[in-house]
Amino acid sequence: MLLKPQAIWAASLPLFLGRRLLPSSSPPPSGRRLPFRPICKRRMSAQAEPRFAPLPTAQSEPDAGADGYQFRLVSYNILAQVYVKSAFFPHSPSASLKWKARSKAVLTELKSFNADLMCIQELDEYETFYRKNMESTGYSSIYVQRSGDKRDGCGIFYKPKSVELLQKEVIHYNDLVETCHLNDNVISAPSNNSSPSEESSGKEDNKKRGDPNDPRVRLKRDCVGLLAAFKLGDPCEHILIVANTHIYWDPEWIDVKLAQAKYLLSKVSEFEKIIANKFTCKPSVIIAGDFNSTPGDKVYNYLVSAGSESTDEALIKLRSLYAENGGEPEFTNCTPGFTGTLDYIFLSEGGSIKPTSLLRIPRGGSPDVEGGLPNFHHPSEHLPIGAGFQVLRASA
Q1: What tens digit of pLDDT does each residue of 144-156 get?
Q2: Is 314 left (phi over 0), alpha (psi -120 to 50) or beta?
Q3: Does the N-terminal or the C-terminal CB of the chain have fewer CB atoms within 10 Å?
Q4: What spans are recorded as compositionally biased (Low complexity) (predicted)?
């Protein structure tokens, strides 16, 4: 079933993409397939300088701070090398999946954004590769590895010259297990609808964990997130809270994904109150990541407080950056088995920041995404999303 058509972007704002871990064969219910076209290119290409297209509303703002202080944030699921196997990505040139080529390509891409803050998902080889290489470019970082035997996690890279880290907190979604009771009702574990490789590994993982109908087992998916409060380098020293997360992948386990989304918002709301009280301020909030949810599903509607499919009110009111600036992307994950939007950047209502530009990414017909990702042009099956922001003048 195809995704509902999204709003058409203005000609000056080519569409955005992102990614998640849903490789090749049968797509989730709301995805679509790409035609398979073999790629003959033999080496990773040098990425052109990424362009942030100005938004039509980003002219001189009367409510902007005196110096019009601006910063840039990018969110990117870079595809952990531990998940890079030819069986998962048979459509990808084998040479483009090698660690030596991919690591250089990802690093080059991260540096090219020239972002002040980067929320990275599926980040592995953190200590052995990314941390020191990003430090040499002027970035500091915080990181949380997934629970259990998982080797990837979530990280936030930031420029100390632009922002100052004030406080951080880790989110372990396995903590949801402590909130459930033996008589809790959960949805019975359905058959999987992902690729054969992911389905087999998922089933094997479930066998190790125990009965998936037991909420104590079902909610233990080893997913994580990061919360961080930063003081911006503007004269007003505005405080920004950034949340980076990666929600569980299985399209059929909507109950688990929705539980994680609710837990995320509760943790963000708690953290926001702590920071507001500690620093006597009203911080702005940005929540970014791979949510493994398509526009209009229960998780998405809950996050944007739509209320049409959610009986609970979100503790923090959010709006989607892209939805309010031309419509959600056509897709952010691009493989022959699934093409759809899974990655988002959400902003808190009433914050003191305003988006001024959006990161340009290829459209569906672009030659560099033909045949699906990853390939020699894009080292991950997701593409990065991002924006430039301006700090607004504080209310009197």
Answers
A1: 999 999 999 999 9
A2: beta
A3: C
A4: 190-199
CATH number (domain holding residue 86): 3.60.10.10
d(CA 298, CA 257): 9
pLDDT (average), residues 69-85: 97
The range of the structural domain enclosing residue 267 comes to: 69-391
Would 39 be classed as within a structural domain?
A: no
Which helix (H) or strand (E) segment is 245 a member of? Answer: strand 239-246
pLDDT exceeds cutoff 50 at 281: yes
Distance, in Å, from the CA atom of 343 to the CA atom of 331, rounded to the nearest integer, reads 9
Closest by CA position to 148, among listed 230, 222, 204, 227: 222
In a domain, 29, yes or no: no
Among residues 145, 143, 138, the alpha carbon closest in space to that of 163 is found at 138
What count of other Cβ atoms lies within 10 Å of the Cβ of residue 197? Answer: 18
Other C-beta atoms lying within 10 Å of the C-beta of residue 147:
16
Q: Residue 6 phi/psi, 5° resolution?
A: -90, 165
pLDDT in tens, 16-60: 333 333 443 334 445 555 554 444 455 776 556 678 999 997 655
In whole angstroms, what separates CA 324 from the centre of its chain? 18
Angle at 268 between CA 286 and CA 343, to 5 degrees: 45
- Number of H helices and E strands in the chain, helices first, is 6, 15
**Interval 161-190 mean pLDDT:** 80
Task: Tell me if 372 sits within 8 A of 394, measured CB to CB.
Answer: no
Which pLDDT does position 205 carry in this prediction? 64
Per-residue tokens: 133? 């290489």
Those residues with Cβ within 8 angstroms of residue 126's Cβ, 6 or more apart along the chain or in another chain: 141, 143, 145, 153, 155
